[in-house]
Amino acid sequence: MSNKKILMITGDFTEDYETMVPFQALMSVGHTVHAVCPDKKSGDTVATAIHDFEGDQTYTEKPGHRFALNATFADIKVEDYDALVIPGGRAPEYLRLNKTVVAMVKHFFDTNKPVAAVCHGAQLLAAAGVLEGRKCSAYPACQPEVELAKGEFMDIPVDQAVTDGNLVTAPAWPAHPAWLAQFYVLLES
């Protein structure tokens, strides 16, 4: 697998597994991953939350770990990156209000570079206006955002993923094997 430079845009109360697992998995196969958050620098941390599926009508939320960022948001030049990862959790809800973040996401679609988004990451995709005519999976509560952004919401099992062009999406962290496998294919194409 060729070494790619991957940007991960995350923030406070990102989903713990949806941040740490792809961060480590992508590095373990030789990619460089820079995790950033607006108004934070390399060495700062973001709070994470663990979302579990325990039979309730929605996920439960528990405190996660502190996730250390390894790059400074203000120093990022988005054109230097080959791909983008957008973890879920609550972070996309507020990140979509940041015009710089939205412009960064849009760049990856304008240049047809690989993008992997999971769970509530679809909120950021919708805000960037990149879902029109695309198939997109997400946490089921994000279906209205996907459809309002003129995307086709893919109601797939929680452990599956879907690829549409340069975009691979999944409902939640149980899909990591499928989601990452499909992202690896995009990274090699």
Task: Write a concise synopsis of the structure shown.
The protein is α/β, with parallel strands linked by helices.
Return the CATH topology.
Rossmann fold
As an assembly, this protein is single chain
Query: In terms of per-residue confidence, which ranges show pLDDT below 50 for 5 or more consecutive residues?
Result: none
* CATH homologous superfamily (4th level) name: Class I glutamine amidotransferase (GATase) domain
Mean pLDDT: 97
Rg for CA atoms: 15 Å
Number of domains: 1
Listing every helix as H and every strand as E from the N terminus to the C terminus, the arrangement reads EEHEEEEHHEHEHEEEH
- Portion in beta strands: 25-35%
Helix content: 25-40%
What about the largest sheet? 6 strands, mixed
Distance between the termini: 11 Å
Q: In total, how many beta strands?
A: 11
Total helical elements: 6
